[in-house]
Amino acid sequence: MRAFLNTVKVDPLRLFFSPSLLNRRKTNFVSLRSFSYPSKTLTRIQTAGVFYCKEMATVSSEAAAKTLIEVKDKIELNEVEKQIFDRLVNTLRHFNLNTELRVAGGWVRDKLLGKECYDIDIAIDNMLGSEFVDKVREYLLSTGEEAHGVGVIPRNPDQSKHLETARMRLLDLWIDFVNLRSEDYSENSRIPTMTFGTAKEDAYRRDLTINSLFYNINTSSVEDLTGRGIEDLKSGKIVTPLPPKDTFLDDPLRVLRAIRFGARFGFVLEEELREAAACDDVKNALKAKISKERIGTEIDLMISGNQPVKAMTYIADLTLFWVVFNLNPKVEPTVSEECQGLCVAYLDAAWNLIHLIGGSSFTGEQRRLCLYAALFLPFRNTIYKDEKGKKVPVVNYIFRDSLKQKASDPETVIKIHRSLEKFLTLIPLLTSNDKTQPAEVDMGMELFDVPITSKLRVATGFLLREVKEFWRVGLLISTMLYPSDTDSAQDFLEKKFELDRRKDLFKAAEDAIVNLGLERVWDLKPLVNGKDIMTVLQLKSGGPLVKEWQQKLLAWQFAHPAGTVEECLDWMKETHLKRAKME
């Protein structure tokens, strides 16, 4: 970086604050101490780094504000939707019910945007969802059609779930049924008293104006009862129907939903909404009132969505990062709050690398965990001590305690993080024209009689068996840290423009691994089983010695891909005999 700046005779401070460069970098502050700037100037640089996410959010917001969204004048139903709605209307007629049925929220929004949506929520004006579902089931039975998957999800006010929801499956689609609501809060309680409400009252209790639209099934028409849902949809704005702070305190999860929809559609978060989302009252309510499972679900939808970097940038900008990704208080070493910028920068780089390499190289699950591994990369060496004093990676705490994700997620991400040092050692060997050089990788075992020309294949084979189908993820993350002798995070941020070079590095290493025949090496069946090993060693039971020899024999198999069972056993007997004589 310094050599480059000296060559082109450009003031690095001027270069850093260039709007076009800032837009390209999307990065944290660079390390410019070697240019001998005054302390006040360096403070200015660091301040810019701390607020990098805010700058990026502003740039994207301004771009989104200039875009006018195409919104359809009316909703066109597909055949399945027509059949479902016909069954619901026929239920009304069958029982002579004076009931209005409305599809609420996301389905209406997506249909108006010309997108298909399979998440249908029905709002009912004069009965509970469970009561109407019973009517639908009875009607279906009268026509000879069986009702499937009928059930009720109870309300849970302590977790800001104020409505009972009934569910049933119609034509292979899950349909949710709830009553229209109005809410009254007592002076000393945040738990509302639920009463039946009008459609307009219900619309104003929704999280966002773009989600407050109704499709009236009875009249086949769209209803915009807040008076601005369609307008905000067309102008690309994320706005709450009521004052945002009131809306968020009612259900603090709406903060994360606002961020998710803003990122997903590229919409602008209204300034008053941003201020409310970042205020302490809302952050405290998010921590106190919302279950970790619901927070984890929202975060996972963001990471798995079409704009994960924008979503995490919003979270960092609104000072919600440490509320969502809560760390154990006993972490070692201490993590600075500014680390969130580095987390987002790594996520940004991984997201761009995935697209440069080609999304088809990764499955959906591999992409998802790759992004988590990148986001939590600054924590890869951070641990905490559990109740028994055992050292545990803090990534495990984030997944299991802060997000309540499935147990396999932290296990996989931690494996990826632990593979990085070995990948960093192997990358120059895999990409070198001289494939005869030895692979000096600590595999935790001594490799007997492995030819020098085979050591690279052996070391790579063992590494890939550790991370299995996530080896490409480990390789991609490693290219972001390569070479390993650089000045860690700051050096990475300074060289972030070199994504094309990192892509080429990934491709070269990937091709080498494929050419070595190791692409799915974890599926390789050992030539010699434990029973054969016990026979050669004249053991009556298994144990550490058998496991040790299993590894040695696997190393021999990697080194001799065309080897036979007999050759492998002959090598084992010979090696065992030599070892016995030496002892």
From TrEMBL:
Pfam families given in the database record: PolyA_pol (PF01743)
GO molecular function: ATP:3'-cytidine-cytidine-tRNA adenylyltransferase activity; CC tRNA cytidylyltransferase activity; RNA binding
Alphabetic keyword roster: RNA-binding, Transferase
Top-level division of the source organism's lineage: Eukaryota
Signal peptide range in chain numbering: none
Domain Poly A polymerase head per the UniProt entry, residue ranges: 101-238
One example of a Gene Ontology biological process annotation: tRNA 3'-terminal CCA addition
GO terms for cellular component: mitochondrion
InterPro entries with a match to the protein in the record: NT_sf, PolA_pol_head_dom
Family: Belongs to the tRNA nucleotidyltransferase/poly(A) polymerase family.
Name assigned to this protein: CCA tRNA nucleotidyltransferase 2
Organism: Populus euphratica (Euphrates poplar)
Lineage: Eukaryota, Viridiplantae, Streptophyta, Embryophyta, Tracheophyta
